[in-house]
Amino acid sequence: MAPAQQDRTAWLLLTPMISIMVLVTAFPLLNTLWLAFTDAGLTGQGYVWQWIGLENFAYILDDSDFRAAVGRTAYFTVISVSAEVVLGVLVALLLNQEFKGRTLVRALLILPWALPTIVNAVMWRLIYNPEYGSLNALLTQIGLLDAYRSWLGDPATAMNMVILADIWKNYPLIALIALAGLQTVPKDLYEAAIMDGANAWTRFWKITLPGIMGALSVAMVLRAIEAFKVFDIFYVMTRGGPADSTKTVSFFVYQESFTYLRAGSGAAYALTVTAMSALMIAIYVVLLVRREKRS
Amino acid sequence: MRRSLTATILVYAAVAVFAMSVLAPVAWLFVMSISTANDLTTIPLRWIPEQPDFSRYARLFSLEEGSAGLAFLSALRNSVIVAVSATAIALAAGIPAAYSFSRFSGRMPLLYAVIVTYMMPPVALILPLYKVFSALGLLNNVTSLIIVYCTILLPFVTWLMKSGFHSVPVEIEQAASIDGANLFQIMTRITLPVAAASTGAAALFALLLAWDEFFYALLYTSDTRAKTLPVAIADFAAGRATDYGLISAVGLLAALPPVLIGFFLQKSLLSGLSAGGVKG
User: Which end of chain B is more exposed for a tag (fewer CB within 10 A), N or C?
Assistant: First the structure.
């Protein structure tokens, strides 16, 4: 094919995808951008609105509730993603050992990953339940706890209990990726290191970790982007409570827009959240571009 | 290298702890679904129910007006319709796009733009989409969810299929071209059949993503006509006169298809995972 004709074919093949993405993503995004500079409400036909410039954003800068939500979301993201990475690598190292039934045990990693997020949230809510919960029963029966507690009803514990539920569902993914990475680390590197007298600890930091870091970093950034958007698990487990102690940024935008029905400021909050995510997304794209160049 | 006996014991002990930690929560969900409220409130807790009670599962398959079964079965229907339709659209538009990215050089910034929109928090889009659907009378309608899910599935399928097409040798396409096949024939008769495995994997991943989606479904649906399973489950869990056994039964049934697909996908899982199939 001639270059011009090639170019035409390439664009032609892209047309369905581009049309859909422009209609369902680009157009709404631009609309959100415009809304953020207005005082529009959500109810009624169309918008009744007035241009108010940067007023919404000025308000956000001053909003200590929103700052607290950002702090909580950052806490959730950092704690759950780092725990997932540490646990994921440890479990990958374990499942990389030789033992009977290894294939079957490795397949167990699929279960939490494939369990729908909402089912995971419901499951842990039932486990934590103050009256029925198996966690209370377990802890009292082995003598670690005197009386049943309301794990999700106490602002001091609610956030960390949700994080625990999130870790259980998401670390197996990191473990799967790390496990695949481990298969690509050349065996003779270890043999050479043992000859040189390197102990297991040194071998892990000098050979194993550098060997799986590439795949791991992509997975880590991806998890962080997802964790920052978190909504489902909190909606089911705590509804942002108690006393707002688990209200994350997505929850904040959701309430501003669909509970208080303020489209203008809701859009401004949404854009602020998007801008924060953009930083992590940029890191992800850089990693992808680098990987693409290598292959 | 031989392992010492102590090391072997440690490995098996750690593996046992790992297996328990994965299985116990799900096993507990099953126990709850067949326990009576009485069994569950007893202190100390009865871990195995005295008399297994499967009545919740029976209730979930009844179609009486206003029953839990009706809510569950209509949500199941809606989830299937939405997931299958959105996946079909995503494949129809994503396959040619992926082919274009894979076979014609250039346009990479466009590909990254598509990935960026996939990563973008949905809060950036919810308000305008809500307004549009409301104006078109599409709120509380599976059509609106099918449309919205394209924003998630289409970039994902495009990205996954692009690497799938990369593994198809260009030479066999050139041979067909010399024999006079046109581009459409090459794509449908040669490239796609050769890349069948990755096409299948992309389709299953897309189904899983759609099955799991909650945020849009919560915002844009309001009753049995359009609510999907995740929303129905959240409803069950939020109800005041809650039957915990029933919630557990619904959760287990809703988890069954994705878990089965997950085990089936095990082999192609990793390519999908690194392409970003990790919503949640």
Answer: N
Q: Is residue B62 part of a domain?
A: no
Whether B13 and B104 share a structural domain: no
The answer to whether the CB of B26 falls within 8 A of the CB of A111 is yes
- Kindly state whether residues B71 and B49 are assigned to the same domain: no
pLDDT digits (tens, 9 = 90+) for B15-52: 999 999 999 999 999 999 998 877 777 777 778 887 88
ipTM: 0.91
- A39/A31 Cα distance (integer angstroms): 14
Flag whether residue A261 sits within 8 Å of chain B, measured between CB atoms.
no
- The CATH number for A179's domain is 1.10.3720.10
Amino acid at A44: G
Contacts of B96 in chain A (CB under 8 A): 13-14, 16-17
Residue ranges making up the domain that contains B19: 1-53
Q: Which residues contact A156 (CB under 8 A, 6 or more apart)?
A: none
- A197: DSSP letter: T
Residue B232 within a domain: yes
Distance in angstroms (rounded) separating the CA atoms of residues A169 and A176:
13
> pTM for the whole thing?
0.92
Beta partners for residue A38, in sequence order: A51
The helix/strand/coil state of A38 is strand
State whether B105 and B180 are in the same domain. yes
Q: Do B115 and B31 share a structural domain?
A: no
Check CB contact of A85 with chain B, cutoff 8 Å. Answer: no
Q: What angle do helix axes A117-128 and A158-184 make, rounded to 10 degrees?
A: 130
